[in-house]
Amino acid sequence: MTATKRKLAIVTGGGSGIGLAIAEKFVEQGIEVVIAGRNQERLDAAQQKLGALCHAIACDVTDLAAIPGFVQGVIDRYGPVDILVNNAGANMKKDFTEVTDEDFQQIILTNLTAVFAMSREVVKNMLQQQAGCIIHISSMAAQYGIPKVIAYSASKSAIDGMTRAMAVELSPKGIRVNAIAPGFIYSDMTAKALDSDPERKAKVFGRTPMGTMGQPADIGEAAWFLASDAAKFVTGVVLPVDGGNSIGF
Ligand code: NDP
Description:
This protein is an alpha/beta fold and 249 residues long. Helix content is 46%, strand content 15%. Strands 3-2-1-4-5-6-7 form a seven-stranded parallel sheet, with helices on both faces. Belongs to the short-chain dehydrogenases/reductases (SDR) family.
């Protein structure tokens, strides 16, 4: 009798916030997880927290030329990839006319082009297994106008489109592709801005039917659902996890 291989996931941006919560949930469920990001110290701290099922590998997703080597390195060391969570993301708050071409390109590179490049390399491996699960972390900014985050909104809307296009092409080959659209989640990306601005914090809470912000663990739970067999007939969806933000207020 051969032992069943433990499932392996890559979580980009897994050293902090939402990515760390997703990695934590996966490890809790017995999944082996490779967390990737630029900040080695933060990755190492996350690895220490999550234990032996977690491996930390430095990777700047905007270095597109390095992505094939990163993915191959993961496969060589830990085996085929079953789950990819494209979570790494960047935002920039600026007035529309202040956004430079470089600003715009940088956000699109991190949030969209790198997601495509990482997915392509992992999908090559998943096609050999005729199985796999990809989860993109989108945002409610994909669907709803939020001022001063023009490139971010454009990148996340494109992620939703890419989710559906990937799903129709890859699902017949055994690879499910879904996205999660978080609402206001308490993480590094939001905490500093909100903690220093109680008025804005009250506005955010007021705009959310459930009257509060989400926690990274809420996204961890949703990612685990999408990655698990409970979602084996789910593909091509963008799942809002937003306390009701997307239904109005
Ligand atoms: P964080 O700032 O905590 O996390 C962002 C993560 O992305 C960090 O771990 C960072 O790691 C990683 N990252 C950024 N750039 C790169 C890069 N070039 N290469 C590799 N890793 C990178 O924020 P969140 O946890 O909130 O964000 C996670 C995702 O959730 C993002 O895609 C964001 O757009 C999305 N989201 C968040 C919402 C919220 O309210 N918080 C709402 C909607 C969506 P490092 O610095 O080490 O590279």
